[in-house]
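Changelog-linked ticket: adenosine-5'-triphosphate example.
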Amino acid sequence: MFQKTRLRLLLAYLGIFASILSIFAIAVRTVFVHTMTNQVVDKLTTLGQTVAASSGFKNGRIQVADNLSVRDLDVQRQALQWIDIKGNTIYIQGNRTLSLPAAIRESIQIQPSKPSLISVNIPIVDTYNRSLVGYLRVSQSLEDLNETFRKLDIGLAGGAAIALILVGMGGIFLTRQAMRPIENSFDRLQQFTADASHELRSPLMAIKASSQVALRYPEGMRPTDAEEFKAIARSAERMSRLTEDLLILARMDKKLKATWESINLTELLQHLVTQFQAQALEKNLTLIYQSSGSLMLKGNSEQILRLFTNLIENAIHYTPSGGKITVSASLIGQSIDVKVEDTGIGIAPDQLEHIFDRFWRADTSRSQWTGGSGLGLAIAKSIVEAHGGKITVTCELVGSCFTVKLPT
Ligand SMILES: Nc1ncnc2c1ncn2[C@@H]1O[C@H](COP(=O)(O)OP(=O)(O)OP(=O)(O)O)[C@@H](O)[C@H]1O
Ligand SMILES: [Mg+2]
């Protein structure tokens, strides 16, 4: 019963931790990439400024000596590109020049595709008349840096995966510890409900028996006393039913293994329908049973009987005079579908989700007259689930249709 809650808690815990971890990894990566890129830009700027300062000019144009050799230039990974004011390349040194057009107004350019490069544009100023004569574009391959980022990504992803596995294992332990007190108190509550319902049976039987005995000799009592005794007998009857229902639910919750046997469902339903014929007739209802062949089922016959009793009882209770109730069973694949359809008052769409809740009843004004407690469908659902099946309800234009799917 607490399995789902435990799993939901664990998933929520893992979800929160994964989000925090992702934010942390993204922040670390962003800071690292930013710092490393800035370092390269600073290095290229220093190199570019040194070279640009020693550039020659003639008539306002850059002059580069053919045998120029720059000491700090790593020709395999870097390149220098002199560009005049019109954007024409005058001279290149080194192997790594950008294939992008010289965007001289941008001081930093990045070429993301292979070969991945970064370049810094340094303005070259004629020191005599202080006019701009061109640019020096200093480029460097980003392959080494990208390799470092790739290793960082692998490290972060691997670390995050290991952290998530460890947190998951810790989470299983923590959720188990956190749920234990709740599970224990729930167990105690179930035990209390079972014990209380069991203990209430005998005094209730005694009250019922005593009032019935008293009613057998009404001559010696006033007519009002007789009415009182009848009311006592009715209330005792209702309370016995309620305690019986609570006891069944408590036992179902505790998942006590009931004995399973082979059940002839066709026979069981036929018998049940015959049993309810008198009650249906009393309310002027048509109650019919339809089935294809003999359907066999594995389960607890007492519980299966209780399940369909509750559904047929409801159909009779909530169908006004003149209505029709159809009980049908058929084999569909590996399971048996039993439908209990009626032409009664139906259930409002917004109430369908509550229909199987314990003590839930549609607005009391309309269901008051049945005197029920709202446990019938909760019991039906528990029984169906204990048998590995499913119960659903649909309400078309008229009445309701309960479908029970049970594995064979
Ligand atoms: N066939 C039906 N048609 C219309 N409403 C229904 C039908 N079956 C159940 N309901 C609604 O669902 C509610 C819950 O049903 P459930 O059988 O659990 O309780 P109950 O019949 O009120 O009491 P009891 O515990 O005695 O069965 C009912 O009060 C009724 O409002
Ligand atoms: Mg009912």
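Closing comment: Example verified and attached. The chain has seven helices and 14 strands. Residues 175-253 form a domain with the Helix Hairpins fold (CATH 1.10.287.130).
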